[in-house]
Amino acid sequence: MITIALADDHPLIRKILRQELERSLDFQVLWEVGEPDQLLSAIHHQPPDVLVLDLTFSGTGFEPAAAVRDLRARLPALKILILTAQDDPVWVEELLRAGAHGYVVKSDDLSLRLAEAIRAVAAGRPFLSPSAAGSLVQAKRRFSLTPRERAILRLAAEGRSNPEIAQALAISDGTVRNHISNIYTKLNVTTREAAIKAAQQLRELPKPNAGLRHELRTPLHTLMGLARLLETKLGRDGHIGADSAPLIQQIVLEAERLDHLIGDLME
Questions:
Q1: Residues with Cβ < 8 Å from 173, sequence gap 6 or more?
Q2: Which end of the chain has the least Cβ crowding within 10 Å, N or C?
Q3: Is the dihedral of CA 19, 58, 114, 237 positive or negative?
Q4: Cβ atoms of residues 79 and 125 within 8 Å
Q5: Is the pLDDT of residue 212 over 80?
Q6: Residue (of 43, 62, 45, 44) closest to 5 by Cα position
Q7: How far apart, in whole angstroms, are the C-alpha atoms of residue 253 and residue 180?
Q8: Is 47 helix (H, G, I), strand (E, B) or coil?
Q9: Which residues pair with 105 in a beta bridge?
Q10: What is the pLDDT of residue 31?
Q11: How would you class 228 by CB atoms within 10 Å of its CB: exposed for 0-12, middle for 13-18, buried for 19 or more?
C-alpha cells in the first residue's frame, strides 16, 4: 500500500484526484490540504510515502522550490511528485534541482500518468510526464543566479514586498535586501523590474505569462477531470442519473470561470 497526500489549492481538483487515486487498490490517500501553511503540520503529523504537490497556491506567496528543499531536508524519506499545469522548462529544471522526484503536467493524460508516476517515485525511480520531459530538454543548464536568488525574484515577480518575501522564505528582511543587491550586480541592473525582466530573458525565471497560462489551464483541467468522472460513471452504471447533477453543475461553473478568464484576457 502506497500512502499519498495531496496539496493543491483547488478543492475540486483535489476531489477529482482523490477519486481517481482511490480506484487503485494499492493507493491510500491519507489527507489533503488547500493552503501551504497547513502542509508542514499535516506532513509531520502523518507523513505519507508520496506528496503530490501543485506549484501554485493563489495569493499566498508560496515558493515551491524552497518548499521542496525544506521538505526534503526535514523528511529525507519523503517522495515529492509535482503535479501542475506549469510546463515552463525553467520550472521543471528548478523543481528537479530542488529535490522533487517526479514532475507531471496535468494535460498529459492525468488519470494514466498520475498513478504511473506515484508508483515510480514510491519505488525510488524518477518520473517525468511527456511534456515535462520535453521541457527539461529545453531547460537552461547553467545559471548565474543561486537557487535562493531565483526564489526571491520569483516572489518579487508576483509583486511581493521584501517583508513578504522574507516571511515566505523564513529569512530576514536584511537577507532579502542583500540578495537583491547581489542580483542587481550579477544582472547589471538597478531596479527590481529590470532584474525580473533580465532574468526572464536569460530563462532563469519562467516566462512572463506562465502564471496566466496556469490560471487558464486550471479550470480547463478541472473540466477534463469532471468529464472523466462522468465517463467512469456512465461506463459503470450504463447511464447518467439524477445523482450526477452536482457534477454537471460543476462543469457549467468551471466552463463559465474559464470563459470569464478568457474574456478578461481579451479586453
A1: 162, 163, 166
A2: C
A3: positive
A4: no
A5: no
A6: 43
A7: 42
A8: coil
A9: 84
A10: 96
A11: middle
Grid cell at residue 164: 513578504
* Cβ 49 vs Cβ 21: under 8 Å: no
Per the CB < 8 A criterion, the answer to whether 3 and 48 are in contact is: yes
Residue 40: exposure state from Cβ atoms within 10 A (0-12, 13-18, ≥19): middle
Q: How far apart are CA 27 and CA 18, in angstroms?
A: 10
pLDDT tens profile 72-130: 999 999 999 999 888 888 889 889 999 999 999 887 766 668 889 999 999 999 999 98
State the DSSP H helix or E strand holding residue 62, giving kind and residue range, or none if neither: none
For residue 110, the surrounding DSSP H or E stretch is helix 110-122
Amino acid at 79: K
d(CA 254, CA 248): 10
pLDDT tens digits for range 226-265: 676 676 667 677 777 767 767 677 676 666 666 666 655 5
